[in-house]
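WARN retry 2 of 3 for item q-0093 after timeout on previous attempt; input resubmitted unchanged.
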Amino acid sequence: MTQDQIIENLKEVIATVKPKLDCSGVNMETSLVRDLGMDSLSMLLMSLAIEQKFGLQFNTQTIFNTLGDVVNYIAKAI
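OK item q-0093 returned
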């Protein structure tokens, strides 16, 4: 799966967690907290949705600051 495909899938995940958010400008540098307004509950819901969508399981406590951090984690895990 390419980086662009991962981003497109993540946009779908974000849209389910934050349905009122416009994801059209989301890119690798997008801040999860500052740009997307993610709080702890949103991050938990996003993590669960990512596990389901990509068929992976978060085994470590990793801090994700940007969408790029998430993309890189998924790319290594799948």
